[in-house]
Design brief:
With 182 residues, the protein is α/β, with parallel strands linked by helices. It contains seven helices and seven strands. It is globular.
């Protein structure tokens, strides 16, 4: 989107229309939700206005939202957003903070006790403009698998195919992990 709530609304409507033709479309993804709403002076309670046209057109579509761990301290914001999202996509923005993953997952589960939580896996640390250390990628994947088994997480996403060529060692570690955990 153009990074504003009106564009988000328009894109949601487009997704709903496309989902009528392409039944494999299952939802819409709100990236950087907190920063978009705040940048445009919209409170979290107004998210319903943004997504309601999409939901009216296709109530089966799921709304995914990115939640960065450094944003999870604002429990009030997320409590107002919670009714409007269906699936949480949790991301640790700075790889140096992956050491705190157990706390972050528990904190996110407290914020969203009734929502599926999908763990985001970076190969590249965009904050540092460097690769995520391979040991950190491996640890995150091991913890993610453990938390899926325990019911704390529901799945994971990997960002992004474009980084496979530039973060080869990290990509290989992920491939090995996925092959072992089919």
């Amino acid at each position: 989107t153009a990074g504003d709530p009106d564009s988000m609304r328009t894109e949601g409507e487009r997704i709903a229309r496309l989902s009528e033709r392409f039944t494999n479309i299952s939802g819409a993804f709100c990236d950087d939700l907190m920063s978009i709403l705040r940048k445009n002076g919209w409170g979290p309670d107004r998210l319903g206005e943004v997504i309601s046209p999409m939901r009216e057109m296709n109530p089966d579509l799921k709304v995914w939202s990115v939640v960065y761990t450094h944003e999870s301290e604002d429990a009030e914001f997320w409590s107002l957003v919670r009714p409007h999202i269906d699936i949480v996509n949790l991301w640790v923005w700075e790889s140096k903070n992956l050491i705190h993953l157990p706390r972050y997952v528990d904190q996110c589960r407290e914020l969203f006790p009734d929502k599926p939580i999908n763990m985001g896996i970076y190969l590249r640390d965009y904050h540092e403009r460097a690769s995520v250390p391979v040991d950190a990628v491996k640890r995150q994947m091991e913890l993610t698998a453990e938390y899926i088994d325990k019911g704390k997480l529901d799945g994971y996403s990997i960002l992004a195919a474009v980084t496979i060529e530039t973060q080869r060692e990290q990509a290989e570690a992920l491939r090995d992990f996925i092959a072992k955990h089919k």
